[in-house]
Specification:
This protein has three helices and 17 strands. The strands form four sheets. It has an eight-stranded mixed beta sheet. It has a three-stranded antiparallel beta sheet with strand order 4-3-16, with no helix packed on it. The protein is mostly beta strands. It folds into two domains: 2-8 and 18-27 and 102-211, PK beta-barrel domain-like (M1 Pyruvate Kinase, Domain 3, Beta Barrel); 30-100, no CATH class. Strand 3 and strand 4 form a beta hairpin.
């Protein structure tokens, strides 16, 4: 098995960026989900309720600052884009603590399960896609560790999927049949909520070794 793809989402709930390699640590992929959107009620806003956020792209600039569709995250231009997607009372804020993650810092998917479901992998919003996995082997991985390059990762549990999987990453058109199919075929869970046991550099093409 090998690392097929690596993804980072510098702004929570926006489209991400594919990487050839990245450092990971206890808080996951370096630069992942550092900026979030907050509504007028003070609560975090995600694409579960405002899917238009998926039409904006989060990246890290050369200076390491998160950007939103080419604009530095704390610029008036970035805020205008977010307010157009979410509403006039939306704000952006920076967060580097573990509370910025819904469950655990890493989401690991496998090409076998993605192929089985016939999905665009971007619908799952994984950080790592492991290639060379047959069928639904990922369903046997919870509780196991695997090594990627210098890093060791613990697969804690299968991820319960939500409405975000139903939006086409390019057109944002919704197809509820996607989620219904995941529920019908996989019990509503797909890919692995994971924690970093020991960090390090991971790269596309790195060998992935599963252990107990």
């Amino acid at each position: 098995m090998h690392v097929k793809e690596i993804w980072r989402y510098p702004v929570k709930s926006m489209a991400g960026e594919r990487l050839s390699g990245v450092q990971i640590d206890k808080l996951g992929v370096a630069g992942d989900r550092k900026v979030l959107v907050r509504g007028g009620n003070g609560h975090v806003v995600t694409s579960r309720t405002h899917h238009q956020l998926l039409g904006l792209k989060g990246t890290l600039g050369a200076d390491g600052q998160p950007q939103i569709s080419g604009h530095v995250w704390d610029s008036p231009e970035a805020l205008a884009l977010v307010r157009k997607a979410v509403g006039a009372d939306a704000e952006l804020f920076y967060c580097d603590g573990p509370e910025r993650f819904d469950v655990l810092p890493l989401l690991v998917a496998t090409d076998g399960a993605i192929s089985y479901m016939g999905l665009d992998s971007r619908r799952l919003r994984p950080n790592i896609i492991v290639g060379g996995v047959e069928g639904l082997q990922e369903r046997e991985w919870p509780g196991h560790r695997f090594r990627i390059g210098e890093a060791v990762i613990h697969a804690a549990q299968l991820r319960g999927r939500c409405v975000m999987t139903t939006y086409d990453p390019d057109t944002l058109k919704q197809d509820m049949g996607i989620l219904k199919s995941i529920v019908r075929k996989l019990g509503g869970v797909m890919a692995l909520d994971s924690a970093v046991v020991s960090g390090g550099l991971i790269r596309e093409g790195d060998l992935v070794t599963l252990s107990d």
